[in-house]
Amino acid sequence: MKNLLPPNWQVPNLGDVDTKDKWLIPPIVDLCGRLREPGHQSHGTLASEGKAARSNGILHIVLPPDTDPILQSGSLLKGLREKAYQDGGIYLHILGALTQDLKGEQPANLAGLKQGGAIAVSNANRGFANDMVLLRTLEYAATFGLKVFFYPDEPSLSKGGVAHEGYIASFHGLQGIPWLAETIALSKQLLMVEETGLTAHFSQITCRTSVELIRWAKQKGLPITCDVAMHQLHLTDDDIEGYNANAYVLPPLRSNTDQQALIEGLQDGTIDAICSHHEPLSSSAKQAPFAECAAGISNFDTFASLGCKLVADGLLTAEQLVEKICTAPAKIAGISDYEKIGGAVLIDPNQSWTVTKDAMLSAGKNTPFMGQTLYGRVVHSYFDAIE
């Protein structure tokens, strides 16, 4: 067995489980998972998605604020965290709304959100009325010492788009989303981070220029981190060919050149973490024509396997993978009691399994990996939370 737990981490009693050729890692920390509750339980619940997460080694999940109702009241957060633990056995780390109703017009009650235990604030993937609102809101967040999570996107460039702007989108007659939609927003946000002095995290970057901009900002010493969604490391816009709705996700799958830059960014430390960007959907949500169906990929069930593939392909070492999906995300999310909560996950990096609806525990079966044989599986989780 390869022990990949951090130094001084308590090793659990492994019992009589066969540990030969397996990895023992700390609990996975997911920096972006939409669990669909509250507000969209037809796609998933805290119980269903919590079970899927735990069974796949994910114990800590960062929840964006764009639920229904929007997470803009500090009084709501404690109850939601307790329900997530009671129903699904997971630790929820909540992003509060940066602006009222996420409309990008006026700041939300940031003091109340901080008091309610929000780990950071975000406007999710919603835009702002103008740059002055963005600047003043960020200044306001800085006064409370709140970290801001950005999902960089310029709505005036991405609105109506459903795929990466390129040959594949053009061939299929789909409206494209240019890479500039991400990088223009990212450039603006980086400059405002520098101006306001706040700490920021950029989630789900997708393109080469974004990696270059993050690298430049880190070299300048800006207090920033970033992550990439796991599926961006394994899929490109080629995978939407034939109007494959299960590969429809926002931000979109980008080009092979972008994917290579993302991998290089992981390898050199520019990209700090890998998130799932889990978005479970009911079966009917993917049955409309490509441009009219709901965007999203259900990722909890395939996350560990796809991570193992990065190691098998020689793109990351096992130690680097643990850093990207466990220890670095815990630091980014400010989980001060990560080690105290403890736990461990035993992974067999060589175990094969076929992705089927029955094999997936998430209520959402919307995955472009359906029918594929993957290698790497969580064989046991040693969690102290409810079973």
Short account of what is shown:
This protein is an alpha/beta fold.
Largest sheet, spatial ordering of strands? 3-4-5-6-7-10-11-12
Q: Average the pLDDT over all residues and give the rounded result.
A: 96
Number of helices: 12
Fraction in helix: 25-40%
Multimerization state: single chain
Strand-residue proportion? 15-25%
Tertiary shape: globular
Q: Which structural class matches the secondary elements?
A: alpha/beta
What is the string of helix and strand elements?
EEEHEHEHEHEHEHEHEHEHEHHHEE
Radius of gyration, in angstroms, nearest whole number: 20 Å
Per DSSP E runs of 2 or more residues, the count of β-strands stands at 14
Distance between the termini: 25 Å
Taking the sheet with the most strands, its summary is: 8 strands, parallel
Low-confidence runs: none
